[in-house]
UniProtKB/TrEMBL annotation:
Function: Catalyzes the phosphorylation of the position 2 hydroxy group of 4-diphosphocytidyl-2C-methyl-D-erythritol.
Organism ancestry: Bacteria, Bacillati, Bacillota, Bacilli, Bacillales
Enzyme Commission number, as recorded: 2.7.1.148
Protein name: 4-diphosphocytidyl-2-C-methyl-D-erythritol kinase
Organism whose genome encodes this protein: Listeria rocourtiae
TM region(s), chain numbering: none
SUPFAM superfamilies listed in its UniProt record: GHMP Kinase, C-terminal domain, Ribosomal protein S5 domain 2-like
């Protein structure tokens, strides 16, 4: 029986800028993203029968065509006329609808795993092009590590690894609609983060440079609408975070902290305010 396990790590946005609205109604984006050590797990088992089976070990997440993992399998099957099947088990750890690209990372992991199990021999670039058909964050999730993402987010330029630090994540129990946040964004009226500065900081391996250039243009929308997100960010800074920022369209906020003792203080402090709090590190590629 051919069986493989794949990890699907979450991402955070070290910077997120929307430059302008394009004729196709998407925003032209500039994002610096990095994968973190908080991951879903997928197990893929090859089936000789021509079918896609998906078992999701989490509540309230669809296990049918609405799931990005299912869509990834269906896309490969259709595009390459695959007559074999697969049984996928998805074990969720990444908070859902959080701004951490959980679904996109699951889809990326499924594409990677299926490429292996169905013997497709597709390159990373080919997988990324297929992934982009399903979601703009999927190409980044296929590359992983730290990268600059432009266009709708699907054009990826890999960058050096994030300098080591601690990351505290806190997700308030509210939901935000990503299309709604982009709809309410006024790109002409807001302060824009310095993407070039962030790229330089990553290239220099400078933790201080990262803290100086951190920024997310979508905070202007989500923080104004949800004061609890702003409060979490303020609390993180009060408890000693070196910097704090909302990831994606939110509502998750993350803090970067150099020192473990301080990270622990931020983590413990936040647990009083928020049900879902995590203390993690940047993702290290497994050898
Ligand atoms: P992003 O940062 O890309 O906006 P997100 O963290 O905000 O992602 P997800 O957790 O990826 O959001 O999922 C949002 C919605 O997508 C969920 O409400 C869920 O119904 C649907 N979905 C489809 N596939 C998945 C999946 N594999 N895991 C979680 N949600 C999924």
């Amino acid at each position: 029986m051919m069986k493989i396990n794949v990890k699907a790590p979450a991402k955070i946005n070290l910077s997120l800028d929307a430059l302008y609205k394009r004729p196709d109604n998407y925003h032209e984006l500039e994002m610096v993203m990095t994968t973190i050590d908080l991951a879903d797990r997928l197990q893929l088992v090859l089936l000789e029968k021509d079918t896609i089976k998906l078992d999701v070990k989490a509540h309230f997440i669809p296990d049918d065509k609405r799931n990005l993992v299912y869509q990834a399998a269906a896309l490969l099957k259709e595009r390459f006329s695959i007559k074999q099947g697969v049984a996928i088990t998805l074990d969720k750890s990444i908070p859902v609808a959080a701004g951490l690209a959980g679904g996109s990372s699951d889809a990326a992991a499924a594409l990677k795993g299926l490429n292996q199990i169905w013997g497709l021999q597709l390159t990373l670039t080919e997988l990324a092009n297929l992934g982009a058909e399903l979601g703009s964050d999927i190409p980044f999730c296929l590359y992983g590590g730290t990268a600059l993402a432009t266009g709708r987010g699907e054009i990826i330029k890999p960058l050096p690894m994030m300098p080591n630090c601690w990351i505290v994540l806190a997700k308030p129990s509210i939901s935000v609609s990503t299309p709604g946040v982009y709809r309410d964004l006024r790109v002409g009226e807001v302060e824009h983060p310095n993407t070039a500065g962030m790229v330089q900081a990553i290239q220099d391996g400078s933790f201080e440079g990262i803290c100086d250039n951190i920024g997310n243009v979508l905070e202007t929308v989500t923080l104004a609408k949800h004061p609890e997100v702003k409060r979490i960010k303020e609390k993180m800074l009060e408890f000693g975070a070196d910097t704090a920022l909302m990831s994606g369209s939110g509502p998750t906020v993350f803090a970067l902290v150099k020192q473990y003792s301080r990270a622990k203080r931020v983590y413990n402090g936040l647990r009083g305010f928020c049900e879902e709090v995590y203390l993690v590190r940047p993702w290290q590629e497994e050898k």
